[in-house]
Amino acid sequence: MSWLRRLLVLPAAAALLLTGSPPAAHAQTAPSRCGPTGGPITSYGPASVTNALGNAVFVGDTLYAVTRGLSPNVVGAYDTAADAVTAHHDIPTGIGAWAMTKVGTDVYVGTHGPADLYKLDTLTGQVSEVASFEDTYVWNMAASPDGKVYLGMSPTGRVVEYDPASGATRDLGVAVQGEEYVRSIAADDTTVYAGVGSHAHLVAIDRATGVKREISPPELASRDFVASMAMNDTHLAMGISSQGELLVLDKDDPGDYRIAAAPGEKYVTSVAFLGEHVYFTGRPTGTLYRYHLETGEVEALGVPYPEAGTQVLHAHDGKIWGTQDGAVFVYDPATGELEYRNLVARGMRAGPEQPMTVFSDGTYVYVSGKGGMQVHGPDGESRRVGMPGEPKSTALVDGRLYLGVYTQALLYGHDPGSDEASLLTGIGNRQDRPRDMAHDADTGLIAIGTQPEPGQENGALSLYDPRTGELDVRRPVVPDQSVYSVAAAEGVAYLGTYIQEGFGLPPKTSTARLAAYDLRERKLLWQMEPVPGAAFVADVVRHRGRLYGVTDTGVLFEVDPARRQVTRTTKVGAFGGDLVIQAGQLYGVSGETVNKGDRVYRVDLRAFTTHTVADGLAGDWFDGAKLAADPCGLYTLRGRDLVRIDTPHGRN
């Protein structure tokens, strides 16, 4: 049975994975969450709590694991002998960390947003910033046998050397011209190996001279990423995206290679050598595999946690250790035992993250993040519903919640009040990020807009019928663009687009569009460019026969769909965020930076002016400012706390 045909149900124990405590009891059916407030703004505390991990490395018998998305991020020291997290070390900058390596007893951490390099002296516990770069991401790092540290960067796609002895950095240049990502890296005495995307390349860089040579097998010409990498004395082992393949290559003779497929997988997320085998993990299934170097045989060993991504594998003490969000697993080749260890239950710190979406069904408020969503109940309680991925979009249909989840562009279902989420289907078609979704009452369909995988062209509009489970994927629907925002009414889906197709590709167009799509005839009716120079339409709503949208440039626009004309525009901020209708009023959120929700405003539709409802919020969002509404008020962030904003027409 394929992974998509299995009903993947995540247990209530998933809350323990992310918070370290059992899920709180929840009210069954409450009329609403309206009640007494502490003023015009009521805080419900941290909006979403997690401890998503980015990478880990062993020093002795201690596994040092770094978080991503917390403030601040931390390196937790997991003493495997004591089976406990014994210390935490703060990383002051960055929204997260994907990159770690070690030199002796020192651990190095590379952050993103910004790209900084930190050293953790594990003997003293001292953390110090040793370098900073103009890039956005340090994707991965590796240490050479003589103690140099090599960093793979984005968006420049370059490799950088850091010398701990002198503190000097050396730019080894762009690995492959035109490519933005060095996603995997390894180094030996003479050579740095760089795995590149979004068009896959494998490059060998001479450490002494900096001379580069392509050693990619010809099969990589049609692949996306060399996304993970491990090395022993003679071979490299690499995970190739997006067809779920393992590449094993002789370092002395790159023409001597083998490619092994893991059926049903798209990604090989991590690799490690142990003895005569390469161990690797796949997604979407989350399976741990073993590849025999002599025979080429691939065997599935087990699933530590369904569909979860494994950030890194290590061979340690004769066993394979894998790091996932909030946990590690241990595989013993001698016994075949696969053990799952919850790090939060062993003392790993959890904390407020940058949330991704907010939604209210009138009883519960849902805030999504890494590895699931936080559910805020009518009595102020909060609990976690786990999902292996990041919910990016939400719709409510007949009392059931539907969630679009990154990666894989998956669709999940959740019954309010339960502690579970179920996998319903996958969009496929090389789609990755479900940017937005909307339900059309006339046709019963959920319209889902998605962005494709890195390096891939053309986003999609997917139509899901919750009554039958039928899925219809239309790609492309607006050629050369992705669908970023969706509204639906009376059999028509209104689409706001994004000029970016898969990340890593230069945009082919210069301005985002607004389009109308007939859900019955399954055809594009019209399209237009409402705001010159806008990269994306952050949100779109239909209200009283008009369309209202807001762009990344902070321009709110009104469109008459009958005449297909922009009728009015106004500036609402530096960056535009979500739009919502509450009690017949149009509200929005805007910010001075793309991921901050600073101001909630109401739109006077007669004068087409805005009036501030709340300001100075500094809402710390992951991917654009979000806003939700129900009869009680408006929901957004103040910092990383969930807040409700009372409105004159709300039932407070």
TrEMBL record:
Signal sequence coordinates: 1-27
Origin superkingdom: Bacteria
Organism annotation: Nonomuraea terrae
Phylogenetic placement of the source organism: Bacteria, Bacillati, Actinomycetota, Actinomycetes, Streptosporangiales
The keyword Signal belongs to this UniProt entry's keyword annotation: yes
Protein's name according to its UniProt entry: WD40 repeat domain-containing protein
Record PANTHER family: CELL SURFACE PROTEIN, OUTER MEMBRANE PROTEIN ASSEMBLY FACTOR BAMB
Record has Cytoplasm as a keyword: no
This protein's UniProt keywords: Signal
